[in-house]
Amino acid sequence: MLLAMGSEAQARGDKLGGKFTAQRWCTPCHSLGRDPSPNASAPTFATIKTKRTRNQIKAFLFAPHGQMPPLELSRRQIEDLAAFIKSVKTKAPPGKSGEI
């Protein structure tokens, strides 16, 4: 039973590992949050989170990407990256802009 639970948790990915992978491979084009992406045609991770399921994100990362450079990510990196993207905050924290 513990082995099955561990395998399920491992299959869901590690957010921290995904953040590391994203910082290494994705930041030249994508914003890892809500801020505008460095490449205007690349969606932010917050946008990807709201428009794609975890499985859609993983399928996209396994497939060729058109404008994206070829990535050679392991299955583990893809699981971790999908976990990180699905953990990204999509709304600004409450409070007034410019409030000190």
Characteristic terms for this protein:
globular; Cytochrome Bc1 Complex, Chain D, domain 2; 100 residues; 0% strand; 5 helices; disordered N terminus; mainly alpha
Can you walk me through this structure?
This protein is mainly alpha-helical. It has a single domain, classed as Cytochrome Bc1 Complex, Chain D, domain 2. The protein contains five helices and no strands. The longest helix is centred in the C-terminal third of the chain and has 13 residues, at 75-87. The N and C termini lie far apart (50 Å).
What percent of the residues sit in helical stretches (DSSP H or I)? 40-55%
Total DSSP helices: 5
* CATH 2nd-level architecture: Orthogonal Bundle
Largest sheet properties:
none
- Gross morphology is globular
The figure for the number of domains is 1
Oligomer: single chain
Question: Any low-confidence stretches, pLDDT <50, length ≥5?
Answer: 1-9
**Spatial extent as radius of gyration:** 15 Å
Number of extended strands:
0
Q: Supply the helix-strand structural class.
A: mainly alpha
Strand content: under 5%
Question: What is the CA–CA distance across the termini?
Answer: 50 Å
Arithmetic mean of pLDDT: 83
The CATH topology assignment is: Cytochrome Bc1 Complex, Chain D, domain 2
Secondary-structure element order, as H and E? HHHHH
Please report the first level of CATH classification, the CATH class. Mainly Alpha
Supply the CATH superfamily name: Cytochrome c-like domain
